[in-house]
Amino acid sequence: MKIMWKIIRESIKVLIIASVLSSIGGFALKSIEEKLIVLLPFIIALPSLNALVGDFGIIVTSKFTTFLYERHVKNLKHSQFVKHLFKDIFPIALISALYLSALVLFASYIKGFSLEQSFVIKFILVILISVMVLFLIIFLVAIIGGYRVYKKNQDPDDILIPITTSIADLGTMIVFSLLILFMF
Fold it and tell me: pTM for this structure?
């Protein structure tokens, strides 16, 4: 029974923060509601983009946590494992963003959306920039947060996976909304 209450006490703060962050993202989407309705590909892309960025948060957090528990990371500034993790996953994030863009544009075309060259270029840029910015934010949160949580003798996976996925949800909606407002 004590273990259950300990888990609840440790988890409740993270769950509340995650819920608040996700709710804020909805307000960002509301600000571009009219543009989203006109821009079918963005409506199709948003859930996939959210999932993609959230998955990278989970991957980075779990890999980094493994490095910590295997004692491969002693100093964050000079860790070859952290550099290697970034060099391995960042290109995959970019390739995934391009793949997602191609799938969404194809689905939009099938649904009858007219794809002009300037729109396609802007759309791909919005997806790529969103993934790059959010990946960098999530990477930093996972690495710095994971290191600090680990030093406090807590499991970084338990705390950082919900936080990085919430940042992905909120961040995707905000960055996506700002880029659409700026570029369209």
Answer: 0.77
